[in-house]
Write a structure and sequence with these properties.
The chain is an alpha/beta fold and about 700 residues long. It has five domains: about 70 residues, DNA polymerase, domain 1; about 100 residues, Nucleic acid-binding proteins (OB fold (Dihydrolipoamide Acetyltransferase, E2P), Beta Barrel); about 90 residues, no CATH class; about 190 residues, P-loop containing nucleotide triphosphate hydrolases (Rossmann fold, 3-Layer(aba) Sandwich), CATH 3.40.50.300; about 170 residues, 3-Layer(aba) Sandwich (Rossmann fold). About 40% of the residues lie in helices and about 20% in strands. The protein contains 24 helices and 21 strands. The strands form four sheets. A seven-stranded parallel sheet has the order 11-12-10-13-14-9-15, sandwiched between helices. Helix 8 packs across helix 9, helix 9 packs across helix 24 and helix 12 packs across helix 13. The longest helix has about 30 residues. The protein is globular, with a radius of gyration of 30 Å.
Length: about 700
């Protein structure tokens, strides 16, 4: 009786030739059925266009080389043994070195083996690659000789234990794909033609076994489109759900806005006026606003939030403003309080350290409606905080809060309008991925009176001159800041570094000046005392950890010295730089570089060359990737295996447009032709449907 052909749902345990041990190993990395294996995409492909001749190698560049092992043996170093192999491609020789597992490598790599190796090229008595990625090739799998496109797979430790390598995976996938019937496609022929997509069956086979680079590119394009499309479906469904969520329309403008506007000693920029109109129009609708306000450091987001809060109060609802730190909450409170008094609105602040008696009075004021605007930290979402009528929730630096915390705040009212603000300019591809369910407002214009900050990268040897310059600034009546990064756990903590340097600076460098210290582990009262003293110019130089990244507004501060600047992300450096240059005096940001890699040099050169936060954020995203862009990991949010939001801009935008059009035409995906789309979407994003009406 002939063996039954596998389907996409066939367990790998029942596939002939896999065996229990290998099936268990594959299962351990999430490959349980045939479909999982087909979606285990190669980490890279080898073809003639991606292979570099050894004679053409360049130092410090990444390269892939194919050649034969001419010599291989264990060497004895000063401290330990290491394994070395010499690779030849007929045009030159390349040394491959492994400092770990010398005995294992000796058993694995033999003279005569045909290898594809990848890694960073170094020069030490000739070209070498240390700890290269490598794959063994057979002659009929060699792209140099055969012209084929060869897939190379990531091989985790679980697979290595059962001797599964790229070659084994290639054989297994080829055997299964050859016996599979046509793979059903969730997209209609019309949809594929409109979006220039190849069939799914073709894409899943060709991602593993393409006859040419052009065929491979078609497969990659289709599979990237799919991943972007289904995430954008989630965004479209969330947005559709929000737009069906009824709430109080805030139509009335009221006298408060005019009273505040008339009191301003500056002219709002065109960009500020534009975003205020966008927010005002949103709040006038009978469903909840869900908008993200982006603006570079110093672009004037705070006054925008104050004016839209005044519109809400004019409509007899309350406003809650939630900030991630007490320092930032205090900063907002000082700004809101001035204008609230001008417009005869009541304003209060609630943080973790608010005294019990004061807290009780605030809770009573919120419950009875006597307090119009409340500023606070996560203290606002505690159970005993109740509003008479919360109509507008504003969250600043919203990426620092979890989705649930934001939900806890909006849950304090009946579907209040929601405005998120960030001073971290977000690249467009990142914004429509992480915030694709939100409408976007951007303040892309700086106030005309802002003096550009001069940024300089210096080496440690220049510090004495920098310290002399800081003394001159203080002598002229101005103030300085010195910031220390969070360093690696194996070294001193950022706190220890800051405390140690505070002692050194106050005792040895600036003995005649008052040097203050602030860090995240200080008690609230102690932090407030330091910041108040700094605001009064009773402290000349403030030494800090990154606790001052947001929320410090001292117009008299003109020098920001950032130690070990190469340890920061570009976006964070830009945020820190924004703590100076807030007054009428010329200001300086000095970046001390102690790491001399090409990467750190490039990153700090970007800081010197531009003050445009959007340019910086784009570069930061390219260098660090989306997972680390905000300094946090959005665990489990992205279902990407092949898609890349950094490089997939055109595909992402096309997928977004298609997803939103589909949801508009069929909000619940009930039409028969969308059944397979619905099934795949539910398989991938069922756990993220907290704000979508599909079920």
């Amino acid at each position: 009786m002939p063996e039954k052909a596998p389907t996409l749902s066939t367990s790998l345990h029942s596939i002939k030739g896999v065996g229990p041990a290998r099936a268990d190993a594959l299962s351990a990395i999430g490959i349980h059925i045939v479909a999982d294996l087909l979606h285990y995409y190669p980490r890279k492909h080898l073809d003639r266009t991606t292979i570099t001749l050894i004679s053409k190698l360049q130092k410090d560049k990444q390269a892939t080389v194919v050649g034969n092992v001419e010599a291989a043996d264990i060497r004895q170093g000063k401290r330990r043994q290491y394994f070395q192999a010499i690779l030849s491609d007929g045009k030159g020789m390349l040394t491959l070195t492994w400092f770990n597992a010398a005995q294992y490598m000796k058993r694995t790599i033999k003279i005569g083996d045909r290898l594809a190796v990848s890694g960073k090229v170094e020069f030490f008595n000739g070209f070498q690659i240390v700890h290269p990625e490598y794959d063994k090739l057979k002659d009929n799998e060699d792209p140099v000789n055969s012209g084929l496109v060869i897939p190379l797979y990531s091989i985790p430790a679980e697979l290595k234990k059962t001797r599964i390598d790229s070659r084994t995976l290639r054989r297994l996938i080829k055997t299964i794909s050859d016996s599979l019937k046509e793979i059903p496609d969730h997209f209609s022929m019309e949809f594929k033609n409109q979006n220039h997509l190849c069939p799914l069956d073709q894409a899943l086979r060709n991602i593993h076994f393409a006859e040419s680079v052009s065929v491979l590119n078609e497969a990659v394009n289709r599979l990237k489109f799919d991943e972007h499309f289904f995430l954008q479906m989630l965004m479209a469904l969330r947005k559709s759900s929000i737009q069906q969520t009824g709430t109080k329309a805030l139509i009335k403008i009221g006298p408060q806005v005019k009273l505040i506007s008339d009191s301003l000693d500056f002219e709002l920029t065109s960009a500020q006026k534009k975003v205020i109109k966008e927010i005002k129009d949103d709040m006038a609708r009978p469903f909840s606003m869900n908008r993200l306000l982006q603006g570079d450091v110093g672009s004037g987001k705070t006054i925008v939030s104050i004016l839209v809060a005044a519109i809400a109060v004019a409509n007899s609802v309350q406003v809650a403003v939630m900030a991630p730190t007490e320092i930032l909450a205090q900063q907002h409170y000082q700004s809101f309080k001035i204008y609230a008094e001008t417009a005869r609105m009541t304003c209060a602040i609630l943080v973790g350290g608010t005294p019990a008696k004061e807290r009780k009075a605030i809770l009573d004021g919120l419950a009875t409606g006597r307090i119009d605007i409340i500023i606070g930290t996560h203290a606002l979402i505690q159970e005993d905080v109740a509003f008479k009528e919360l109509g507008l929730a504003i969250v600043d630096e919203q990426h620092r809060f979890g989705v649930l915390q934001r939900g806890d705040l909006t849950g304090k009212g009946f579907n209040p309008h929601f405005l998120a603000m960030t001073a971290t300019p977000i690249p467009r591809t990142l914004a429509i991925t992480y915030h694709g369910d939100m409408d976007l407002s951007i303040i892309d214009e700086m106030p005309k009176d802002r003096i550009p900050i001069i940024t300089k990268v210096v080496e440690e040897t220049r510090l004495e001159k920098i310290y002399t310059f800081m003394k001159e600034e203080v002598k002229a009546g101005r103030q300085c800041m010195v910031v220390y990064p969070l360093v690696k756990e194996t070294e001193k903590s950022d706190l220890a570094a800051a405390v140690e340097m505070h002692g050194n600076l106050s005792e040895n460098v600036f003995p005649e000046l008052i040097v203050g210290l602030i860090h995240g582990r200080m008690k609230k009262d102690d932090k407030d005392e330091v910041m108040d003293a700094y605001a009064r110019n009773d402290i000349h130089i403030l030494v800090s950890t990154t606790v001052i990244e947001v929320g410090i507004d001292i117009p008299n501060a003109t020098v920001m010295l950032i130690e070990n600047a190469d340890r920061f992300g570009l976006t964070q450096l830009h945020q820190l730089r924004g703590r100076v240059g807030r007054g009428s005096k010329k200001s300086y940001c000095i970046l001390v570089r102690r790491n001399f890699t090409e990467n750190s040099k490039k990153r700090l050169q970007i800081m010197e060359s531009t003050s445009d936060g959007f340019v910086i954020s784009d570069e930061d995203l390219k260098l660090r990737g989306p997972g680390e862009f905000f300094g946090i990991r959005q665990s489990g949010f992205l279902k990407y295996k092949i898609a890349d939001m950094v490089t997939d801009g055109p595909i992402l935008r096309k997928a977004r447009q298609s997803a939103f059009e589909l949801v508009k035409s069929d909000p619940n995906l009930n039409q028969p032709e969308h059944e397979l789309i619905r099934i795949r979407f539910m398989n991938e994003y069922q756990d993220k449907l907290d704000r979508a009406n599909i079920s």
